[in-house]
Every structure is written in C-alpha cells, then in structure tokens.
Amino acid sequence: MAETLPKTDVVIVGMGWAGSIIAAELGKEGLKVIGLERGKERGLKDYYVVHDELRYAIRYELMQDLSKETISFRNNMKERALPMRQLGSFLLGEGLGGSGVHWNGQSYRFLPYDFEIKSKTIEKYGEGKIKGLQLQDWGITYDELEPYFGMYEKVAGISGEEAHFGPKRSIPYPTPPMKETPLTKKFKDAAKSLGMNPYHMPSANLSEPYKNTYGATIAGCQYCAFCERFGCEYGAKADPTVAVIPFARETGNVDIRNYSNVTEIIHEGGKATGVRFVDVLTKEEFIQPAEMVVLTSYVMNNSRLLLSSKLGRPYNPDNGSGVIGKNYCYQILPGSTGFFEEEQFNTFMGAGALGATVDDYNGDNFDHSDVDFIHGGSISINQSGSRPIASNPVPSGTPNWGKEFKAQSVKYYTRSLGIGSQGASMPTKNNYMDLDPTYKDAYGLPLLRLTYDFTDQDRNLYNYIGKISDQIMREMGANNVNERSNLESYDIVPYQTTHNTGGVIMGAEPETSAVNNYLQMWDADNVFVVGASAFAHNGGYNPTSTVGALSFRAAEGILKYSKEGGLLA
C-alpha cells in the first residue's frame, strides 16, 4: 500500500538542467517544490580525482543502469523490437544533475529558421521541398525565445563570441571565448581560405571564473580534457549541481529527494493530482500529491511516463493521429578524420567545448534549391581531449588489431584530427516512440519502444555535408583522409550523440502537438513537460541551450498558471 505524503505546490520529475532551473525559479517566488530524482546525490566532492577513463568513459559510472530499465529498439514496424542491453548510441545520465553533469558543454542557440521551419521552407522552396517529412513550426519564434536564451547563458556563464551566421543577441556572452590553440587556428585558417566564416565554439567550460545570476561561482577551465562522461572536479563546467541546485535549496522552498523513481502520473478529469514513486533503496511506494506536475526527465522517459500513465493521446503512425511519442529525431553525423605526417598536436589536452565551428551549411544559411534535402549542420573541430583507451584512429586499410595497428595508433595519436558535423534530423511518420508490448522493467512497467531509421533526407544531407568537411580537412593539410562509410540503417550500439529529441512536441495547435509554447499540456493544463522532448525536429547543434531557454519560459508559465489557472496564451 502506497503511503500518501503531504500535498505540495509543485512536484518535479527529474533534476537535470530543466528540473533544476524550474525548481530555482519557482522556489525563489515562494512556491513549495519537491524534486524527485531517481539517482543519487552528486556534487563537486564526488568528482575529485576522477580521471579514470576506464571507470567513467568506458564503464559508464554516471549513466543509467540498463539492467533495471532500458528501451527496446527496432528499425521499422515489421521488425520485432529487442531490449538495448548495453549503452552505445546515446548515454542516459542518472543522478542529481542528470546528463548535465557528464556533458561536453557545447552551448549553441538553435537558429531562427528552426522555430518556423515548415512555413519558412514552404515560403522559399514550395510544398514539394518537404514531401515525406512530418514538419511543423514550434509555436514560438526565435525573437520570442531570445530573452530566455540570455537567462540560460547568464546562469551557465557561457564563453563565446559573435558569429557571422549567429542569430541576433540582446546581450553579449557572459565570458570571453576559450583559448585559441594551434588546432583551432588551423581549422579557422582553412575554413576562411575556402570562403567560410568560422568562430569559436560557445562553451560551458568557462574561459575564466564567473559568478552567475544565482550567486554560484563557476571556476575557469583547466583544459584537462576530462569533460565528456565525467563530472568536473574543478567546478569549471556549468553543471546543475554547481550552477543552480545550491541556490534552489537556499530558497528554503525546494526539497530534493534522491532515489525516487516516478512510475506514474496520477490524474483525474483532465487534471494531474500528483505522482506515484518508488524508493529504489527500500522499495517503498509513495504518492506525492501536488497542484502541478512538471516532467523534466530525459526525452525518452517523458514520453514513457505519459504513455504508461495514459495521459495524452498516443501517436499512431498508421493514421497520424495522437501526439505522445510523435516526431522522434536524432542527429546525422558526417565528419572527416585526417592524418598528418609531420605536425604533432597536443590532442590529449583540451576541454569538452574547446573548438571552432562554421555554420555556412547549417539551417537555411545556403541555397537549397538544387539539393535534395533541407536544413544542414554545423561543422566543427573539437579539441575535447584524446584519451588513450578509446582514442586510437588509424588510416583506412590498417588492421584493427596486432602489431601494425599498435604502431599506427602510436604514430597518429597526436597526428590525427577529426572534423565533426551535427546534422539536423527531420521527423517522418515512421520514426516514433511507444510502449513495448512484451518487455518490462524492474518495476513491472512496459519498456519504451523506439522505432527509428535513417531516411533519404538523412543520407543526402550526410553525403553533402561530409564532402564539405573533407574539403576543409584537406585544406588543413592532411596527407590522408579516411574514406567515410555510407549511411545505411541506424544502429543503436556504437556511440553517436546523446541528442535525442521529440515525443512530447510543442506547437500552436493541440491537434498536432502535445504542449503549447509554455510547454503546458493541452490535455492536462496543470502538467508541464519540459526538455528536448518538446523539439518538433532536431537542429544542427547540441540541444542544451535551447532546453535551458525553454525551461526559463516554462517556469514563467508555471508561475502564471499558479496565479491564474487555465491554458496559457
């Protein structure tokens, strides 16, 4: 029998970036907030002396335990979905701070084109350009969201510089860009010689110490190269446990409860009344009543909780009805690996977001009239640090084991460079999420089932952007550029990015979206679903800055709802 706890104003499910920002914003305005996090407490003390590549980067110390909860996957509806038994394509964070603890820190704003992608594409190229794509505008414009981007950047202390194709900004970056290195300079020089417009990557690894709007001091980066898959022991990477959560707790109105796995949103008559959760240590079950429920867990768990709680209308790919689980998108990752005979780069040093980027082929920054895809991708060099276990690039044709492999690995450890691209991912009717009819988790609940595969749009974008990155690599002076394999069917095992989006998408009409532009559910107005699950497609960047901006706007909406009620305009 579940124990019913005292009622609170707001219960938040998941305490990563989105949950932390909303807790802080509501707490400072006097609302009583309970934040439920299924993982353990985390903070700087847990990151001391964690430069252990095997433990954190290979064995995934900070990630979700798939033996208790995973997802099932298939490429198409004709296949039987099978559970993902090991982390690979994406890494699901767990614990206080969520994936915001182990991220690299790249902090781009989505482009104005992204928020009005359907209308802008049709206006310029006609209806035929989007045939086969399930596109929609987001129900908000960049200009409307711009102030909230500034709020996020001031909390995270983002280090950056103005970009040629960058959207307009009302404030400068809070801190200067990170250091220029021989590697970033070589990339910029090559891009400029090809007529492109490179700029320093916007970074949440701070270039200098900074005191944020919540009074937290974020240290300057040490360039140790242990960012991705690691917590920062110096407190130099903007992370919710450093930048936001201490302030939220200091309000006296935010109570964070770890080891609390939410299994159900309880609702009646079009309103949520609270959530059911399990203490993962004692297995005790509790009901937490609340005036408002805010979902800020990871993309996939937001969809899964709504589906298993029977809240909202499940998406049906056969007839296009419903919205929960709709428009799952990922990213397309063309890139180039180049090998240099003479030059040596200190690639074992760096930071998660130390790099340079060109946006000349992102969004609609170039003419798409004669290409068979829309959007594009950012193209970047990223000196995030080459660690010796996982990083051993060798030229094509080298055996993947043995004496020659070892010799080539040693030779090119500091003589190889990678150019990567984050290609946008467009939604189609057959890429979606629902509940698995066969497999369940440790708590007896159905797993989330992911149905996803690459499309012709993806392959065409991949080939086009890949050739551009090869061109830049050759201009940088590489003696050898590895051949890129063709983009075939999506495979969930090798790591790609943790930039999953969609499932609870935002829009202007309830017929085609799950939430409005405050991320308030159309079907239950006291439920807000916040995160990259709201993205109607995935752009050519990391999603975190856009998640941060949407979180500040959602917090504003929740405060307004607490006073006025009803659907927000």
UniProtKB/TrEMBL annotation:
<dbReference type="GO" id="GO:0033717">
    <property type="term" value="F:gluconate 2-dehydrogenase (acceptor) activity"/>
</dbReference>
<dbReference type="InterPro" id="IPR000172">
    <property type="entry name" value="GMC_OxRdtase_N"/>
</dbReference>
<protein>
    <submittedName>
        <fullName>Gluconate 2-dehydrogenase alpha chain</fullName>
        <ecNumber>1.1.99.3</ecNumber>
    </submittedName>
</protein>
<comment type="similarity">
    <text>Belongs to the GMC oxidoreductase family.</text>
</comment>
<dbReference type="InterPro" id="IPR007867">
    <property type="entry name" value="GMC_OxRtase_C"/>
</dbReference>
<keyword id="KW-0274">FAD</keyword>
<dbReference type="InterPro" id="IPR036188">
    <property type="entry name" value="FAD/NAD-bd_sf"/>
</dbReference>
<keyword id="KW-0285">Flavoprotein</keyword>
<feature type="domain" description="Glucose-methanol-choline oxidoreductase C-terminal">
    <location>
        <begin position="427"/>
        <end position="550"/>
    </location>
</feature>
<dbReference type="Pfam" id="PF00732">
    <property type="entry name" value="GMC_oxred_N"/>
</dbReference>
<dbReference type="Pfam" id="PF05199">
    <property type="entry name" value="GMC_oxred_C"/>
</dbReference>
<keyword id="KW-0560">Oxidoreductase</keyword>
<feature type="domain" description="Glucose-methanol-choline oxidoreductase N-terminal">
    <location>
        <begin position="218"/>
        <end position="329"/>
    </location>
</feature>
